[in-house]
Write a structure and sequence with these properties.
Elements (H helix, E strand, L loop, with lengths): L10 H5 L25 H4 L4 H6 L2 H6 L5 H7 L5 H10 L6 H4 L10 H6 L28 E2 L5 E5 L26 H12 L6 E5 L8 H12 L6 E5 L2 H4 L6 H8 L4 E5 L9 H12 L4 E7 L7 H13 L2 E8 L13 H14 L7 E6 L4 E4 L5 E4 L3 E5 L5 E5 L10
Parallel strand pairs: 2-3, 3-4, 4-5, 5-6, 6-7, 7-8
Antiparallel strand pairs: 1-2, 8-9, 10-11, 11-12
The structure holds iron/sulfur cluster (SF4).
The site of iron/sulfur cluster has 10 residues, from loops.
Length: about 400
């Protein structure tokens, strides 16, 4: 069984050996080296065949929960009718690893809610759409979204290890599991070559880390060969739902394509397991900076204390909380949406309690392709040529004098 070391555990617990591995050998032998010099647990103890299999990312993918029957076998007593209804519209997949993080198989459990279909996904108020960010309208060639002058988004697969119930790309993810063809990749790269202002390419999907290292390596090499592309970013949820994917072989391949950044997607402290911490450490040790993009989800992470535990845990794992997104107006996720005021309240709470490094930017991805809009608590009370009045964290007004610039001075 996988461990679920929450961030309320000590730092040491994140790097400790697995609790389901055999206990350590006796230390009564004076020749036993000090703890720090002892080899890594995996090297000391042969793993059982079952444990070896569970640590293999391909086994995890092959053995995903894909049907309502699989779910019932794993969690007898769930509301199978509601699950089936939602799964008919939006695909179901959960890795055995992510399923093992579920403690209570009902809507009170944050992992269950993020992974298991829910009849409320069929709610369909008129302001929702399949593509609220209008990505399809901003595709000059299939699979390449170009909205901002200096950035482009390349969708390389429609496969994910686990289909998140709150996904913004429900129209694509899992609808038909496939990866980018060589012809489409060539078309995308030709477009990038024609757009020298694009310096930053985000590889996304689906989840690019569900591809083989060889296939993903081909994509990275093709994009890296565009002389005007400076950085490549990969968007992935693998460290959260499939940490076994972060192998030495993968990391060795990624290293060849620096400067490479990665954004992952942790939403709840219960996702910060030992396995996830090890996966992130491998990536960071390979020189890949990690950012985290959370989505604000009703009943999951919309309490300030939960968000504080999440961001503190991420920073301990060397993952920088980057964005906290308001849930998009996408069909199938209405039951996850919170009022915008909730996000503002959480940001105010964080600002007073945790260091700036741990504070993400709260943003709305505006409907109809309006782009990202940062939402901040209002700390500016008034502005005049001589002074600006600010409100500090305790709510007190503070007057800040503007620079003194005598007339005629050259500054
Ligand atoms: S991993 Fe990303 S693309 Fe895939 S279902 Fe989750 S949020 Fe959507």
């Amino acid at each position: 069984m996988s461990r679920t070391a929450s961030t309320s555990d000590s730092d040491a617990s994140l790097s400790s050996s697995s609790s389901d591995e055999p206990p350590s050998s006796s230390t009564s032998d004076p020749s036993t080296p000090p703890a720090a010099a002892v080899a890594a647990p995996a090297a000391r103890f042969p793993l059982s065949a079952g444990e070896c299999r569970r640590r293999d990312w391909r086994w995890q993918l092959r053995n995903r929960i894909r049907t309502v029957e699989d779910l019932r076998a794993r969690f007898p007593g769930i509301d199978a009718a509601g699950v089936a209804e939602a799964a008919r519209k939006f695909p179901l997949a959960v890795t055995p690893y992510y399923a093992s993080l579920i403690r209570t198989p009902d809507a009170s459990d944050p992992i269950f809610r993020m992974a298991v279909p829910d009849a409320r996904e069929l709610l369909d108020p008129p302001f929702l759409s399949d593509d609220p960010l209008a990505e399809d309208a901003d595709m000059p060639v299939p699979g390449l979204v170009h909205r901002y002058a200096d950035r482009a988004l390349l969708l390389v697969t429609t496969t994910c290890a686990t289909y998140c119930r709150h996904c913004t790309r429900k129209r694509l993810a899992g609808a038909k599991e496939s990866t980018i063809s060589p012809a489409r990749l060539a078309q995308a790269v030709a477009y990038l070559r024609s757009q020298p202002r694009v310096r930053d390419v985000i590889i996304s999907g689906g989840d690019p880390l569900t591809m083989s290292s060889e296939s993903l390596g081909r994509v990275l090499a093709a994009v890296r060969a565009v002389p005007t592309v400076e950085i490549i970013r990969i968007g992935t949820r693998a460290p959260v739902v499939l940490p076994q994917r972060i192998t030495d072989e993968l990391v060795g391949m990624l290293r060849r394509h620096h400067p490479l950044w990665m954004n992952t997607h942790f939403n709840h402290p219960r996702e910060l397991t030992c396995e996830a911490a090890e996966a992130c450490a491998r990536l960071v040790d390979a020189g890949i900076p990690l950012g985290n993009q959370s989505v604000l989800l009703r009943g999951i992470n919309d309490r300030p204390e939960v968000m504080e535990e999440l961001v503190r845990g991420l920073v301990r794992m060397r993952v920088r909380p980057y964005y906290l997104f308001q849930c998009d107006l996408v069909r199938g996720v209405e039951h996850f949406r919170t009022p915008l005021a909730r996000g503002i309240e959480i940001m105010k709470y964080l600002r007073g309690r945790v260091g700036g490094l741990a504070i993400p930017l709260f943003a709305v991805d505006a409907p109809h392709g309006g782009g990202k809009v940062p939402i901040m608590p209002d700390y500016v009370v008034s502005v005049s040529p001589t002074r600006t009045v600010l409100r500090n964290l305790e709510g007190m007004p503070v007057s800040y004098p503007e620079p003194y610039a005598p007339s005629g001075g050259c500054g």
